[in-house]
Amino acid sequence: MADLLALSANYIDKDIFEGPGSVNRVTTELSEVADGISVIESFSHVVSFKTGDGLVLFDTSLADLAEQVMKSLRGWSDERIHTVAYTHGHIDHVGGMGYIVGDAENRGDPRPRLVGHENVSPRFDRYELTNGYNSIINMRQFARAKSLAKGMAGAPGEATPRFGPPHFVHPDVEFSDRMALRVADTEFVLHHDKGETDDHLWAWIPQHKAICTGDLVIWVFPNAGNPQKVQRFPREWARALRQMMAYEPELLLPAHGLPIAGKDRIRTVLDDMATALETLLEQTLTMMNDGARLNDIVHAVKLPQRLLDKPYLRPTYDEPEFIVNNIWRLYGGWYNGNPAALKPAKDSALAAELAALAGGAGALSRRAQELVDQGEIRLACHLAELAVQAAPEDRAAHAVRAEVYGARRKTELSLMSRGIYGWAEAESAAKAGINEDPGETA
Question: Which of 55, 189, 197, 434 has the greatest count of CB atoms below 10 A from its CB?
């Protein structure tokens, strides 16, 4: 059993970062972090409380990991599962619930009570409505370029894999703003706040002076900007973190990353996360109110490096630039301030016109290669993209596009960026006849 609290204290107190895998471990192993409280490190974690009248669980992890999670849980306690709370409706938090229900039935236990915010069920309905789309973007986000090469992303005649568990298990107890649960002598005060999602809850457990944060704390930069997912809420997220601070918790239990002990240590972490979000919000809204275009704002807004260097704020999953885009979308809509983009020409028509002016798609590709060599990789991506839009069957243009996005992928820190660039790289590599699968190791 790992000493997770000692690990987190070492990283926080000494500002140590040993890579994303060191702080976001997926072992399915259980660690008891306080008397009657355990954390199963999974994707996401399962946090469990002994109450004297059965276990209370926060989250259930993925469907594929549920059997191993339950095996670890049963190695710690054979008590029935009294209540499960979804911190929110993302599939890595709810996917294992079907297995938990089946386990209770096999044991002859009562069906566990399932608690969630009132927006969880509408989320499940939306997942069913957009299941193919969500499957595709998750393959792309998590750098599964091999799926593209095999024709899994919506190619004719190919079935897109299902997104999520075979069946979503809906909460049978819902709340809107705040709810108090009591199981035996243990009280759980559930709060709703928007953040990564609009259906998020976090819990204060006064008996243990503990906070279950869900994905409001994830040991990477807050996932408030994901370019392929629905709206996130950085202002409300920061406010929730400051409300947690007001309780002066002594134990913090996140759904990803390491649990944290110590009032001062927890306050520092929560304050740094809230400050980072508030700083992005303030700078972006100031420029919006001054009439700046989105493109100008994206390139101007910056965070202090001291925050980005924290082991719990590294942009290895989401990143600040994406959050700026999401702030614009939340407060300003989808028009980016460029009049030509309001009702644009087809990408292929614009590309063909620019290619003709430049002397053909080959000229655009050659210049893209030159720009990569000069370190102007953002601009190189635009030209490589224009080249294949102008000549979609040109193998040479696709070979350059694969090269450019491959180079871009290697410069990126965040998984989201590497996934998208690796996907584009693999797409053009396949069309150019290059037998590589670079995105799989992105």
Answer: 197
pLDDT in tens, 19-48: 999 999 999 999 999 999 999 999 999 999
List where CATH 3.60.15.30 sits in the chain: 4-272
| pLDDT in the model for residue 141 | 86
Q: For domain 4-272, give the CATH number.
A: 3.60.15.30
User: Out of 1.10.300.10, 3.30.565.10, 1.25.40.880, 3.90.1150.10, which CATH number does the structure's domain 345-441 have?
Assistant: 1.25.40.880
Residue 153 has pLDDT above 80, yes or no: no
Question: 155 exposed, middle or buried (CB, 10 Å; 0-12, 13-18, 19+)?
Answer: exposed
- Chain region(s) in the chain for CATH 1.25.40.880: 345-441
Q: How far apart are CA 51 and CA 54, in angstroms?
A: 6
Residue 436 has pLDDT above 80, yes or no: no
Question: What amino acid occupies position 191?
Answer: H
* 286 vs 436, more confident: 286
> What pLDDT is recorded for position 222?
98
What pLDDT does 1 receive? 65
- At residue 47, the pLDDT reads 98
Cis peptide bond N-terminal to 22, omega within 30: no
| pLDDT tier at 142, thresholds 50, 70, 90 | confident
> Rounded CA gap, 142 and 415, in Å?
7
Mean pLDDT of the chain: 94
State the pTM of this model. 0.94
